[in-house]
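Input/output pair, single chain:
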Amino acid sequence: MPARSFPRALTATLSAAIAASLAACSFAPPLQLQSVEPPANYREAQTPTRAQLPWKFADSAANGVADGAAAGEALARAPWEVFALPELPGLLARLETANASLAVSRARYRQAAALIDQASAGLFPAVSGSLAATRARSSGQTPPTTTDSLSLSASWEIDLWSRLRGTVDANEASAKASAADLAGVRLALQAQLVQALLSLRVVEVQRQLLDATVADYERYLQLTADRVRFGVASRADLALAETQLRSAQAQAIETGVQRAQLEHAVAVLAGELPATFRLPPRPIATTVLRAPLRGTDNMPDGARSAQPGSGTAHAGIFDLVPALPAVPLDTPSTLLERRPDIAAAERRAAAANAQVGVAHSAFFPILSLSASGGQRSSIWSELLGTPARFWSIGPALVAPLFDGGLRGAQKAQAVAAWEQASATYRQTVLAAFQEVEDQLAALRILAEEADVQQQAVKAARVAAELTQAQYRAGVASSLQAIVSNGALLSAERAALDLHNRRLIAAVVLIRALGGGWQATDPATGSF
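Output:
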């Protein structure tokens, strides 16, 4: 074939190869996941009212790899503002930029995205060039010769059976799963940060309550000492009063351990060393937490005439802790669209499904096209001349004949991996619904418990006030006063612990719902 016919031959061959590639068929089966029919309403929700929530993570993850990361960024703006924590926006911003666990997830996503380009490269021809000089002697009778060559070669696998395209599809699905993982890690870290900050604020109120109680007990100790001096009380009464005081002081000191550990947790989540991180305590006026056992000499005029149990001399401690927000609910079916872990499981199932098609395509021949051309001459000055030119082009068909069952085993492995991914998707969906129902039940039941505990606090306050008045009048014993005082403190601390549990349940519920909704949504559920 004349040299000038090389372009025509190459063009014809490339045209046939492109047509064959475009007509390639895929052996990947239709994506059919193990379905879970969502209920019409959440069982544990107190009201069927549903809010229309704007963000749908699984949809965005399915539409493009970059969309998953963009949807994850939206999580940083919602929905934690419902807790009205002034420090939270700044801490969330620091978590976004400095948290090491989030950086690890970002790197994993970039790795998965790079695998798409790596697999996509196989869809295009591979071209290489070489410049070589070889000196050789064929026998002892001939002198050595030097051959210079300049060549360009290309090879291209025609993707007749979508083996390469299936690999790209699998890597794209895996990258979208990594994007969903990134959003899930971000949401989990944000929930941890909010939980730690809420618990820290409750512990601060616990400390303020204990400090106010210590002040009460100091006043009670002084009263008992006066009664001992006048012979009205015994030294045993004084010892009991001091025991009560020291016990309250120890409990107040113990809250310092809890606050320090929570502050350290916030520091690490924000990507800082605990040694250099400081979260200033919120100032609380001690008069706000006036306990009922102090004398009336320092009380406002209106409080001095208050009847026992009126609460005038003891403001509500729940005015000082973060309020419990109402978390809006959408229909249960939207959980399949909003949860990052469900989106990740669905995309991993899609990747496994594509790998089944890749494994099936291994049973068919591989058609490849190779071409090379260049110049070769033993005289350097003649290297670029027409007589030194050479070229070759042609297809190659490689068909597997016998491999001892290797391809069959590989396909069986791919099918089993798909079944595993499909079952994992179903289990992820079931676990998601369980998590939502768990937290809805917790909020509903803890609300009932909180009402009863509030009544216990009120009753304990009445008992403590009455017993203290009787003790001053010499009717009640020191032991009765101490028992009533301790019962009041225990009831109030239990009420604060219960409120903290409700706050944590609300945080976990927001995370379980997938996050991403705006707190300004007017239609909210009630718990």
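The longest strand covers residues 145-158. The CA atoms of residues 154 and 498 lie 71 Å apart.
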